[in-house]
Q: What sequence folds into this?
């Protein structure tokens, strides 16, 4: 099972592709950020994010794509800009015929650290540890994307176990 | 000169393609709304808007695409949703190699009615009159999209006249 997490941002859009072995172990397949040129027009920036994410999906063939649910933002203007990036990220997944799972920040922290109110640094440390990375990836958008992928794999594994377990009488 | 206006919305995305003759007269080439299914997942809705707008651009070949600048929304959650639609609209134009012009609501009303604080109904009446339509198009997202296209054509014609005029000494 291979999941791709996407962390949308107006400056950087982080991505991480994580593979889970049948024995449950996690491996990082790919990680990085897409950073559209600062001078570019909005439409060009969105096109760069769309083609970048499409290329990652086509190259690394994740079974599913996972993305953070967003309910808040600094203000309406930032929310509109962030929404634009989120729109093209969802479209890239849909265009590549991948289903998209959405997880709240609370679910992501719970799945990775075991505690929904965990600090950002705890999430970074745990992602680095779980994937046996040499150091905490920079910028933090990468760790966020990997955390979303891990959250999806954990959720999926739990659901599979529940479905496989005999029903209680 | 042919312009396509897009009015992004989470329920309906209106579009209008308007042609301006060399003598300045305006003709409506195409108008309508893209209405993704209510039951569909967000990614599927965005894919429907993207492919719908792409088809309109490919069929009617506008020289340019124009879209409303958005600075406000009811709240952050609505802004995120609206941003997602706006993102795929900008991407559709960029993917079809069309430049995108953005106009403020004030500029659009000024260009169509001659008064930036005009009522919505005045804009609808004026668009219907300028394009010699039989009745006010419904839903209003269509009139908004046509107004954006007209705004772009007027702005473009004014700029062309300014560039053609001899410089004052």
A:
């Amino acid at each position: 099972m291979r999941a791709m997490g996407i962390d949308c941002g107006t400056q950087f859009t982080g991505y991480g592709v994580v593979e889970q072995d049948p024995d449950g172990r996690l491996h990082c397949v790919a990680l990085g950020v897409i950073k559209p040129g600062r001078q570019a027009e909005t439409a060009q920036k969105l096109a760069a994010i769309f083609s970048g994410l499409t290329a990652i999906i086509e190259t690394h063939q994740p079974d599913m794509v996972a993305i953070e649910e967003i309910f808040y933002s600094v203000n309406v203007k930032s929310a509109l800009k962030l929404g634009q990036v989120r729109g093209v990220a969802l479209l890239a997944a849909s265009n590549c015929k991948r289903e998209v799972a959405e997880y709240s920040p609370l679910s992501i922290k719970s799945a990775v650290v075991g505690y929904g109110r965990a600090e950002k640094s705890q999430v970074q440390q745990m992602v680095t540890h779980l994937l046996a990375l040499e150091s905490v990836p920079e910028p933090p958008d990468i760790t966020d994307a990997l955390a979303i992928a891990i959250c999806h794999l954990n959720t999926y594994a739990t659901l599979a176990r529940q479905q496989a377990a005999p029903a209680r009488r």
User: Anything to note?
Assistant: Helices of chain A lie at 42-60, 76-95, 105-113, 120-130, 140-164. The radius of gyration of chain A is 16 Å.
